[in-house]
Design goal:
The complex is a heterodimer of chains A (156) and B (1035).
Chain A (H helix, E strand, L loop, with lengths): L2 E9 L2 E6 L3 E9 L10 E7 L2 E6 L1 H4 L10 E7 L5 E2 L2 E2 L5 E5 L1 E9 L18 E7 L2 E6 L1 H11 L2
Parallel strand pairs in A: 2-12, 5-9
Antiparallel strand pairs in A: 1-2, 1-10, 3-6, 4-5, 6-9, 7-8, 11-12
Chain B lengths: L6 H28 L5 H20 L3 H18 L7 H19 L10 H16 L4 H10 L13 H4 L2 H5 L3 H14 L5 H21 L7 H33 L2 H29 L5 H37 L3 H22 L1 E3 L1 H4 L2 H12 L3 E6 L4 E3 H22 L3 H7 L5 E10 L2 E8 L6 H10 L5 H5 L3 H5 L22 H11 L3 E7 L3 E8 L5 E9 L2 E6 L3 E7 L1 H7 E4 L2 E6 L2 E7 H4 L5 E3 L6 E3 L18 H5 L1 H7 L29 E8 L2 E7 L1 E11 L11 E6 L5 E5 L1 H7 L7 H14 L6 E7 L5 E5 L3 E8 L4 E3 L2 E6 L2 E6 L16 E7 L6 E5 L1 E8 L13 E7 L2 E6 L1 H8 L1 H4 L2 H4 L7 E5 L3 H13 L3 E5 L2 H9 L6 E5 L7 H10 L8 E5 L4 H9 L4 E4 L3 H11 L2
Parallel strand pairs in B: 2-4, 9-20, 13-17, 22-31, 26-28, 32-33, 32-34, 34-35, 35-36
Antiparallel strand pairs in B: 1-3, 4-5, 5-7, 6-7, 8-9, 8-18, 10-16, 11-12, 12-13, 14-15, 16-17, 18-19, 19-20, 21-22, 21-29, 23-27, 24-25, 25-26, 27-28, 30-31
Helix pairs in contact in B: 1-2, 1-4, 2-3, 3-4, 3-5, 4-5, 9-10, 11-13, 11-14, 12-13, 16-17, 17-22, 33-34
Classes of the chains: A mainly beta (156), B alpha+beta (1035).
Chain lengths: 156, 1035
């Protein structure tokens, strides 16, 4: 199996990974504008060089503990191609994932990715695509399309 | 069949065909208008269009298009060669054919499914009719021959192989076409030599025209939109730059260190100069008297040198702060960027501009079709087609224009017979004009028809239930005419093809409003109607007011704002009222619901401290927290109850709120300081208005509003988001969404408000009382004095609990009985139930029973004369005409005695001792006169009524042996205090028991009443208590 690159990130002191090809850029210390009346997993909006980007909170989706609200956040902006809708990219649909901090890029051999074990206490397995053990650490790989899909299923 | 490989080619082909067709229609209309005198140029153009379409589509074997175009081409060639005269029928058929062609091309993906047989038949009928007339069998063949490959039109199915020939493919090329026209001219025997030349020249022109058209370029709308976005971002960046620059300049001027440095420099140089000059003088003029000279010198020095030095210092500081900004020549660069960005923005906007002509073009055709259908003669004159508007606006304009033209043709312009009678030209004219006026683009559609008859509109609107009779009475002619824009309105007797469905003009108004435009109507009966559509130049940039609520910034689009109001802290309790669960302000005599923006978003309120600039918690929980203390301490629950609030503002109930600009408050008095004043933004919500309380009103800015992603779709409170000059984001508020989120229910109240207002003003001369008007699901209107109402509550039907045949509802943890008026009173039963209703909870009752209302109409302050005879029965005290409606006044005690005899009876036995007692009642309000004397009379008393203190005094003195006086406080001529004082002062009456009754529980009133020596001070209309008091006090 081929090697895959992942970006590791911290959410509530747990290590997660997102496939690098799905990431567009990493932002830290960016000011978040809260939007009231939305689901709690929709964190708010940010100004990304004149573009308004929606920030989702994977921690809520994964049913991790609630964290304190901060005025600035770190986030991973997902690749615009994920939001390709027919012909063009709908810019207003670009989404970022809020994270506590971003770690490293790590290369993982495809066959080292395991199905998420059943005993991941307290974590919603629905949004994980697999787990990888690396240097005594467990990296939980986020299922980005499930996160996006989950969101879109709700507006019906 | 078209293949995907050829997609691009097909796309361009379709676009080209559409262009041809768009020219075809006006040309055909010319053909009709000018008949056989039409210029050859037009016929040529028509012919060429058909020919090009045929050629292009034959390449892809699109049989129906080719067939239709071909047949039309044949007809046109006959016309061109004067073999066929131009008739209305001919134009009709050609137009039909053109429409079908357009349809086929618009639905290119499944053109197979569209039948063209009807059109072909019609076209061929004319073609054949013509050939049967004899002259042109040969011509037809000749034409076929000239066209080389064209099959005979009789055949409805063209063999494909024949069509796809090199010639027809090449026919797309205009050069080939030109030669073809020439050859045709040559072969045509009937053509006049002059015309041959003319036509050849025309064809030449045509080639030139085509070269010209290459100056423009097709650009994908997507790309333009993207460009527009980028420019918008550039504008934002430019604004940020500007902000930062100004910040810098500001900082330096306020930099204390810099100023200090300068100051110390000035004072030290002052000293040096002083000393130097002095020593200089000493040397030169040693002989001069020292002391005088010294004084003189000091004065001079101070006046000139110190002053000058300080001047220099200020100048330096200013120059420095300016030059600091400009040190790296940034200023000129930023100015340049500023200019460039502005012009870039302007140019980019222009790329999205389209000529109004694109929508105007179809109007002549619509008019023509309508005129024929309606058998009227209508001419349309279109001017200003070259005016340019944003693409998005153009797209939206199409429907409204069609509806307006239809309306003109159907309702405006009269039939020729009527026009003849009126001495108007037989042919009606519709003028369509586009022009620019003071920052707005205006499209004006006027007709010289009959105008709008306000009377007819009024009766139709009432008939259709759009307005009620009483509202109609209060409306101006203009307002009535504008009802044609109301949804569901139609004055047509029958639903026809043309109009009568009552959707048309409604579409006009909503569509124009959607793009931020405005519709104006001017109509003179008998003269005609003019409709002006006022359109914004562009809809991408929205001018909005920024407001702060809590720590958030929100933008409110200016078009959804009406007014800004500031209410000083000391006026809050006067101007803000609480009605049931909702807070209202009275503005211009109308009640407007008021909501706190912070509540909408569940935020905390902060105010900015005037001294420190810090944000502080706004501890005021309730908007209208009372500062005047009532007699006894009241609970928060009672605070919410509206009646006190309403009573307190009795005196200035209709006083319009002024927009207060005076920010100065008395030092140390927090109540008048700015930070606790209320900032209210009056927003438009459809036809209604809502007050939004915000913490701070900031600037009005031009903002680029961006849509929010689908994750925010479920929240209707936002219209989008925007990036501010400082790079922060602000959400743009959708006032409509906010008001529906807060469940504001305007049902009727606002519209009634208008009509009520008139009555209100008219009746203000009389003795006034506050009445709540409400309905019980039927047409009857009921009234109850506000003084009797504790609160009004909105309740859902499913909150009702039924026990036996009694209904209850939970209210503050207690069960509250509810009744429906029609179960106890002789009134009509209500119509179908809705999901919710209002509960009227009366005041001053030991065993409260609430009354169901389906609709709260209004609260009015009015004087009425009660009519006791027209209606009577259980629970009815009388009736009056309020606001043109027959209004029933409810006798709440009588009603409750009937409903709940156990709790409300028994009074009779108590009241036995009152039999034959003589009581004087001084009361100015007729309603209270009636009701209080009724209570007392039922208990057996003999009651005489005096309408003011003066009369009461007279009556007392007329030797009647009154045993007790019940008096109101506020009465004309002599009030209750005065009367009581007089009584206590006289030897004759000083022992007469006096009971003051009032609707207002206000401490100062109470104190004063006690001061003048009354025996009791109590609430009006508490029957039980009143009777008890009377019994106690009577000897």
């Amino acid at each position: 199996m081929s090697e895959k690159l992942f970006i590791t990130l911290n959410l509530c002191e747990k290590l997660f990974g997102v496939e690098i090809s799905l990431c567009h850029e990493i932002l830290s210390n960016i000011e978040l504008t809260l939007v009231e009346h939305t689901d709690n997993w929709v964190k708010g909006i940010i100004n990304l060089r004149g573009q308004i980007v929606t920030i989702l909170d994977p921690a809520v989706l994964l049913s991790l503990e609630n964290k304190k609200q901060t005025a600035t956040i770190s986030c991973i902006i997902l690749n615009a191609l994920l939001f390709k809708n027919g012909g063009g990219i709908d810019e207003s649909e670009i989404v970022g994932l809020a994270v506590d901090s971003v770690g490293d890029v790590c290369s993982v051999n495809g066959d080292r990715i395991l199905n998420p074990p059943a005993n991941l206490a307290g974590i919603n397995r629905k949004f994980l695509s697999g787990v990888v053990t690396s240097e005594n650490e467990l990296i939980m790989l986020l299922n980005v399309s499930e996160i996006l899909h989950y969101s879109s299923a709700l507006d019906k | 069949m078209p293949e995907d490989d050829n997609k691009e080619l097909i796309d361009s082909l379709i676009a080209e065909a559409k262009e041809h067709l768009s020219n075809t229609e006006p040309d055909l209309l010319f053909l009709e208008k000018d008949g056989n005198n039409v210029s050859a140029e037009i016929i040529d153009r028509l012919f060429r269009s058909m020919h090009s379409i045929k050629g292009a589509f034959s390449f892809f074997d699109v049989v129906p298009v080719v067939e239709l175009a071909h047949t039309m081409e044949n007809l046109l060639s006959l016309v061109r060669d004067k073999k066929l005269s131009i008739t209305n029928e001919l134009v009709d058929v050609l137009l039909i054919g053109k429409d079908k062609l357009a349809l086929l091309i618009d639905n290119f993906d499944n053109y197979d499914s569209i039948s063209i047989s009807d059109e072909l038949e019609k076209l061929n009928n004319i073609l054949e009719g013509n050939s049967q007339q004899g002259s042109s069998k040969i011509t037809k063949q000749k034409i076929s021959k000239t066209k080389n490959t064209k099959p005979k039109p009789k055949k409805t199915k063209i063999p494909k192989s024949k069509i796809v020939t090199p010639e027809t493919i090449l026919a797309k090329d205009s050069a080939v076409e030109k030669t073809e026209v020439l050859t045709q001219v040559n072969t045509s025997t009937t053509t006049h030599p002059d015309e041959v030349i003319k036509r050849a020249v025309k064809s030449e022109n045509n080639t030139i025209y085509k070269v010209k058209s290459a100056e423009s370029l097709r650009v994908k709308v997507d790309l333009l939109n993207k460009l527009m976005n980028l420019v918008s971002e550039l504008v934002i960046a430019r604004n940020q730059l500007g902000n930062r620059m100004n910040q810098k300049a500001f900082d330096i001027l306020n930099d204390k260190k810099v100023v200090q440095k300068f100051n110390s420099f000035v004072s030290s140089s002052e000293k040096t100069i002083y000393n130097k000059i002095k020593s200089h003088y000493k040397k030169k003029y040693q002989d001069i008297n020292k002391s005088t000279n010294n004084n003189d010198f000091n004065n001079f020095f101070e006046k000139v040198v110190t002053h000058e030095l300080n001047g220099i210092k200020d100048f330096f500081l200013q120059t420095l702060s300016l030059s600091l900004v400009d040190i790296p020549c940034i200023k000129s660069v930023t100015q340049n960027i500023d200019l460039l960005t502005s012009s870039l923005q302007e140019s980019t906007m222009q790329t999205r501009l389209q000529q109004v002509e694109t929508v105007f073009a179809k109007l002549p055709r619509i008019t023509r079709d309508l005129a024929r259908k309606l058998k009227k003669q209508i001419k349309i004159v279109v001017t200003g087609g070259e005016v340019e508007l944003d693409k998005s606006i153009i797209e939206i304009l199409s429907d409204p224009l069609t509806h307006i033209i239809r309306n003109c043709a159907d309702h405006g312009i009269e039939t020729p017979e009527i026009r003849l009678q009126k001495g108007k030209p037989l042919e009606g004219t519709v003028n369509v004009k586009a022009y620019h006026e003071s920052g707005e683009e205006i499209i004006e559609i006027s007709d010289d028809g009959n105008g709008i008859d306000a009377d007819i509109v009024k009766s139709k609107a009432i008939e259709k239930g759009i307005i009620s009779l009483k509202i109609a009475e209060g409306m101006t002619k203009q307002e009535i005419q504008e009802l044609i824009f109301a949804p569901g309105f139609s004055s047509a007797e029958q639903v026809t093809d043309v109009s009568g469905r009552g959707v048309g003009m409604d579409v006009v108004k909503t569509n124009i409003a959607k793009i931020g435009g405005f519709v104006e109507l001017i109509s003179t009966l008998g003269r005609g109607t003019t409709i002006k559509l006022k359109l914004p130049l562009t809809i991408e940039i929205v001018s909005s007011l920024l407001v702060r609520t809590s720590d958030r910034m929100y933008a409110v689009p200016q078009e959804s704002m009406v007014d800004l109001v500031r209410i000083r802290a000391k006026d809050i309790s006067k101007k803000i009222e609480i009605l049931g669960d909702s807070v209202v302000i009275r503005r211009g005599g109308r009640l407007l619901p008021v909501i706190k923006l912070a509540d909408v978003f569940g935020l905390k309120s902060y105010y900015r401290d005037r001294v420190t600039g810090e944000m502080k918690d706004d501890r005021r929980k309730m908007l209208a927290e009372r500062r005047t203390k009532p007699i006894k301490p009241i609970s928060e629950e009672e605070l919410l109850d509206g009646v006190n609030g309403i009573n307190n503002v009795n005196d200035d109930i209709d006083e319009p709120l002024e927009l207060e600009g005076d920010l100065r408050g008395k030092e140390g008095d927090r109540r008048v300081s700015t930070e606790s004043a209320l900032q209210i933004l009056i927003a438009k919500v459809g036809i209604h208005k809502v007050g939004l309380i915000v913490d701070e009103l900031l600037d009005i800015e031009e903002l680029v509003v961006k849509p929010l992603s689908r994750y925010f779709k479920q929240c209707k409170c936002y219209a989008g988001a925007t990036i501010l000059g400082n790079g922060k984001l602000a959400l743009v508020i959708d006032t409509q969404g906010v008001s529906s989120y807060m469940n504001l229910d305007f049902s009727g109240i606002q519209r009634e408000n208008d009509a009520q207002n008139l009555i209100l003003k008219r009746s203000q001369m009389n003795e006034n009382q506050n009445l709540l008007l409400f309905k019980n699901g039927s047409s009857e209107v009921f009234a109850l004095p506000i003084d009797l109402i504790s609160r009004i509550k909105k309740v859902k039907t499913d909150e009702i609990d039924k026990i036996g045949d009694k209904e209850f509802i939970k209210n503050n943890g207690k069960s509250l009985r509810i009744i429906r008026l029609h179960n106890y009173m002789d009134i009509s039963t209500p119509g179908p139930k809705r999901g919710f209703f209002y509960l009227l909870i009366p005041k001053l009752m030991k065993h409260p029973i609430s009354i169901v209302m389906t609709e709260v109409l209004d609260i009015i302050k009015t004087g009425v004369s009660l009519d006791k005879t027209s209606v009577s029965g259980t629970g009815i005290i009388g009736s009056a005409i309020i606001n043109n409606s027959f209004t029933i006044f409810i006798d709440i005690y009588n009603l409750f005695e009937t409903v709940d005899p156990d709790n409300y009876k028994g009074l009779d036995s108590v009241s036995k001792p009152l039999l034959g007692k003589r009581i004087l009642l001084a009361e100015d309000t007729q309603f209270f006169q009636k009701i209080i004397s009724k209570y007392l009379e039922e208990a057996g008393c003999e009651v005489d009524v005096a309408k003011n203190g003066m009369v009461a005094w007279d009556m007392l003195n007329k030797d009647k042996k009154y045993q007790l006086l019940i008096t109101d406080i506020h009465m004309p001529l002599m009030d209750g205090y005065e009367l009581s004082r007089k009584i206590r002062a006289s030897a004759k009456f000083k022992l007469l028991p006096i009971v003051v009754v009032t609707a207002m529980e206000i401490k100062s009133y109470y104190d004063r009443a006690m001061e003048v020596g009354v025996n009791r001070y109590q609430q009006k209309l508490d029957k039980e208590k009143l009777l008890k008091t009377v019994i106690e006090l009577l000897p």
